[in-house]
Design brief:
It is a single chain. The chain is built from five helices and three strands, in the order αααββαβα. The chain is mostly helical. The mean pLDDT is 94. Helix 1 runs antiparallel to helix 2. The protein has helices spanning 3-82, 88-170, 174-186, 209-217, 237-241; strands at 192-196, 199-200, 230-232. A hairpin with a 2-residue loop joins strand 1 (192-196) and strand 2. The protein has a three-stranded mixed sheet.
Length: 243
């Protein structure tokens, strides 16, 4: 390759690295959003659970209060009816039923108290849960703003790089461009590795002198024997290896 072709190849690689950065960023955006939103979602679920608990507790509290009122009304009616009985058998029957209503009243009161306690506990936790949600949503909004800004900036760079690629591709030999695209598809950067101190800068493999001469002459496409990257020679390398 000519110096101009080598320069075009390296410039193309720089653009592709910017494109890849955006592509990789896009691949993780959804996961990043989920990570950002997770604390707020957790706080929201906690608040919703407390609010549902409060609604249920108040509903059950009201239910047992009504049941207790109904139970007490039945008890009072039986008391009134018991006063009109004329024999011991009927009196004992009324007495037995009234005792059952007393026991039921105790059970209803106990259940009602438990729901009152659950209601109070839920009410106590709701303000704190709301504060936690507000703080989590604020943090999430700040993090989303930063992520959106980064995405927008990478998109801008991506779009600019995309426009600059075509002229560079035209300056690169077809054979080199075809092989470069294969390396680009694998996504393992860099695709073209500059020789530094006689070695591939991509993997560190040291080339023998004859191979370095071939890379320097650039008469054909030469890839690294170890990593497969396109090998590129720059003029400043001569001072490092003594050519």
């Amino acid at each position: 390759m000519t110096p101009d072709e080598i320069q075009a190849l390296l410039e193309l690689q720089e653009l592709d690295l910017k494109l890849l950065e955006y592509e990789r960023h896009q691949d993780i955006v959804e996961a990043e959003i989920e990570k950002i939103e997770a604390p707020a979602n957790g706080a929201r679920a906690r608040l919703e659970k407390l609010e549902n608990e409060l609604t249920l507790a108040k509903s059950q509290q009201k239910h047992f209060e009504l049941e207790l009122v109904s139970n007490n009304d039945k008890f009072k009616k039986l008391q009134t009816q018991q006063m009109g009985v004329r024999n011991q058998v009927e009196f004992e029957a009324f007495n037995h039923e009234m005792e059952a209503l007393k026991e039921r009243a105790d059970a209803l009161e106990e259940s009602g108290i438990k729901w009152i306690e659950r209601s109070e506990e839920a009410e106590k936790g709701i303000p704190e849960a709301k504060e936690a949600l507000e703080a989590a949503e604020k943090t999430a909004a700040e993090q989303r703003a930063k992520l959106d800004a980064k995405t927008a900036e990478l998109k801008r760079i991506h779009d600019e790089a995309s426009k600059l690629k075509a002229p560079l591709v035209e300056r690169i030999p077809n054979q080199v461009m075809s092989y470069y695209k294969r390396l680009r598809g694998r996504g393992r950067t860099p695709f073209a590795a500059v020789i530094r101190r006689g070695a591939c800068s991509g993997c560190g493999f040291t080339h023998p002198p004859q191979r370095l001469q071939e890379i320097k002459q650039a008469k054909k496409l030469i890839s690294c024997e170890q990593c497969g990257r396109i090998q590129v020679w720059l003029a400043e390398e001569e001072e490092q290896v003594g050519f």
